[in-house]
Amino acid sequence: MNTFKKTSRIATLALISATLLWSSASFAHCDSLDGPVIQDAREALDKQSLTPVLKWIEPDDEDNLTAAFRNTMEVRSLDPKARELADQYFFETLVRLHRATEGAPYTGLKPAGSASVAARAADKALANGDVEALAQKLGENVTRFVMKQFHKVRQDMNAETVPEGREFVANYVRYVHSIEEIHNIIAGEHGGH
Q1: Low-confidence ranges of the chain (pLDDT < 70)
Q2: Domain ranges of the chain
């Protein structure tokens, strides 16, 4: 298998694994105080320019963010406490608008270090410029997940009681939906974040 096909396969498995193994809530490291959105927000405040953060929101939200940014810049010069509160307001506004682009609710800012292991690993791979180890690990996790679901369904296929039958159906539905999701990702039909 050539390197391009191998890398593509690994990347696909990584995407599948991320989708299956972590809920959308755990992808929300954009709301963490050490996440990429807040890092860019700090840069925007330091540079006194919205340019570093505009990529995180939709064009229709630029006016709202611009107003919040102007208010923040005005108030943060008053004193250290005002600066802290103004920065918090700007961070919250930016993250709320960004979460809306994902179709996700804003649930507040999270403390630094609260990002999932998966999000931290994804960011580390980007920072290092190397996805091979991450993709390999995720691929292994996908394989284990699919095999585990498959064996649960096979084990319960000959259920003899109603409760056993219901357990079979629950496992069957989870298994089939997982396989459908994998197929949709590979086919480019997955629309989630």
Answers
A1: 1-28, 189-193
A2: 28-115, 134-186
